[in-house]
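This part of the workshop introduces the protein records we will be handling. A record pairs a protein's sequence with a compact description of its fold. Comparing a sequence with its tokens is the quickest way to learn the format. The record below serves as our worked example for the rest of this section:
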Amino acid sequence: MVVMPELAEWFHPKRRTGQTRLLMVGAVVGALIVLTSSTLFSWPIHGLSATAASDDPNVAFDAPDGSCLTWPAGTANISKVDCSAKHLFEIAGTLDLTSKYPAGAPFPDGTLWQKIAQDNCGPVVSKFMGGKLDPDGKYSANALNPTAQQWSSGARTIRCGLQAAGPGGALQPTTGSAKGGDQSNIYPVGTCLGIKDKAVGDPVSCGVAHSYEIVGIVDLKSQFPDGFPADDKQQTALATRCGKAASDYTNGFDLTKAKLGLTWDTVKQESWNVGSTKVNCKVGQKLDDGSGLSPVTNSVKGVGTGVAATSTSTAPPPSG
């Protein structure tokens, strides 16, 4: 089994802002600004009952803090759902921007909306999470904002909340409240992550070009119950445990025959402190020139001695 932990540096995009990861309105995740641009809502904000109609056009801005929202891809049909169901956004708090942007203030452009979200939603989300937001976890902060027309009519309230986005920025459905939940940035075993510009993308079918295939999940807490393990201890433990996970997943396939290698994520102290102790074991390959990741096609699941996924890289994978 060839291991290459150095590949892990390409797994997560660089999205940290201080101690809170922020996917800004109008930036990487355009879905929310598209939704709010075609969604009407009423003022002032008031709480919705648990039986509120799912097609209520005011739901995004009427729902109380702690509510979870979802919508079909490419639509503005926002529904309030129980947080135990799949959802795309969890409301953490409400902010009134009137004091900073009084009547007559021009509608913020994309750059200013990013700054508003960064300056305001990070603290709101952190408070909602009891100060326990994993800066490298699966959740990030964002905001639902009024449209230009609503702004000109006096609307100055934004809803800050939590969402999970893939490495390429597309929102990923989650279940359960982020508050008190596991924030480990992991994917279900068998997930393939896309590839774009030699970097990791959002989940795709394993039959198309992808960067990594998740072959196992390891909870380091089970091996280190007494506290955070240093990086060298994590590497040693994961070389064994991810190696076994990959062997079980592939039915003993020799990854080098497909010019592939095994790698994994590790956990940082600040993530461990808030309970994020699980990591991905994954299969992929670097390009020959080391400039990024090589496209891989097909899955390695259960292949044994059969035909497996193939990397376009011509060089053997580097050893760990």
The longest helix spans residues 231-250. DSSP finds six helices and 14 strands in the chain. Residues 8-55, 314-320 have pLDDT under 50 and may be disordered. The helical segments are 31-37, 59-62, 110-128, 148-152, 231-250, 269-273.
